[in-house]
Structure formats: structure tokens, C-alpha cells
Amino acid sequence: MQNQASPVEILSPTIPANWCPSGSWSDVFNNYQTLFLNNSTVNIPGLGLVTPEQIATINQNIQTLQNEYNALAVNVRSGTISSPIAGLNLVTFGSAMPNTNYIITAYFVSASGTTAVPASPWSIIDGSQATTGFSILLPAVTNYTKVNWSVQSIASS
């Protein structure tokens, strides 16, 4: 790193001149690992300046970030209504959301070469938003061929 006065070192015992294991290459490497790598140390300049409390804080911050990332990664579902019909369309998730407090986004995909704006608005049927899916009411199917949808929920931490 740029802020270090010296590089990281791996300090291993000296290999004696008479060390000459026999057998297959895996035997040689395993013997080397057992005798020398397992007895090596890593010297990281400046590491002694970090207190155990600082390391604990860093570890906690990493765990908090990992938990927040996992919550985001788990709480997203998406799909396509590939043959939309005017009226009620049922959407079912492959796996349940943790709760019903999720945001739904949808957009219409027009047929190739179509320039007219698809009919709108669409709506969610009141009370249909469940952990396993929702019901969406679509306008008259005119020039769109499918509806892409996505739901997302950020779990409280």
C-alpha cells in the first residue's frame, strides 16, 4: 500500500540444505507446508498500531454492511407478464417476500416498430399485495406485448 514504509513480509524458518523429501509432488508440497509454511508468520508494517477495540469496531461495521447487503439482495423479485390481458393479471413470486411492505414497479414493452404510448394507468387490486404475489389491473391491451415488473423491500435493520 502507498502509506506503508515497507512491504508485507512472510517470515518462514530457514530450509536446511539437507531437506530433501521423497515421493510424489503432493508429498513434497505437503511436507513443505507442514514443516515450513505452518511455522511461518506474516509481518504487516503498522498493524501493531491498530488496537483490538478498533479491530472489533471494523469487524462490526463489516458485519452490519454485510447484513444490509443481504437484506437488499434477498428482498427483490422480478418477472414478466408475457401475455398480458386487459383486466386482472395475477403475479406470483418464486419465493415469498418477508412482508407485504414492498414497492411495485412495472413498465410496458411495446411491439416492435410501435411508436404510440401504451394505454395507462395500471393499478394494484386493493388487499391483493401478499408475501407470495399481487394482482395487477391492466388497461386495454393495445400495442404492448408484455409487462415487466419488479418488487423490492428493504428490511428494517
Can you walk through the features of this model?
- The relative contact order is 0.17.
- The chain folds into two domains: 9-72, no CATH class; 77-152, Immunoglobulin-like.
- The strands form three sheets. It has a three-stranded antiparallel beta sheet with strand order 3-8-5.
- The mean pLDDT is 84.
- The chain is an alpha+beta fold.
- It is built from two helices and eight strands.
- The two termini are 34 Å apart.
Structural descriptors:
single chain, 157 residues, alpha+beta, Immunoglobulin-like, 2 domains, three-stranded antiparallel beta sheet, 27% strand, elongated
Q: How are the elements arranged and paired?
A:
Elements (H helix, E strand, L loop, with lengths): L8 E3 L13 H11 L5 E3 L8 H23 L1 E6 L5 E6 L10 E8 L12 E2 L8 E6 L5 E9 L5
Antiparallel strand pairs: 1-2, 3-8, 4-7, 5-8, 6-7
- DSSP summary: helix tally: 2
Kindly state the percentage of residues in helix: 10-25%
What is the end-to-end distance?
34 Å
How would you sum up the global shape?
A: elongated
Helix/sheet category: alpha+beta
Mean of all residue-level pLDDT scores: 84
CATH class of the largest domain: Mainly Beta
CA gyration radius, whole angstroms: 30 Å
Count every beta strand, where a strand is a DSSP E run of 2 or more residues.
8
- Fold-level CATH name of the largest domain: Immunoglobulin-like
Major sheet description = 3 strands, antiparallel
Uncertain residue segments: none
* SSE sequence, one letter per element: EHEHEEEEEE
**CATH-level-2 architecture of the largest domain:** Sandwich
Q: How many domains is the backbone divided into?
A: 2
Q: Widest sheet: strand order?
A: 3-8-5
Strand portion, in percent? 25-35%
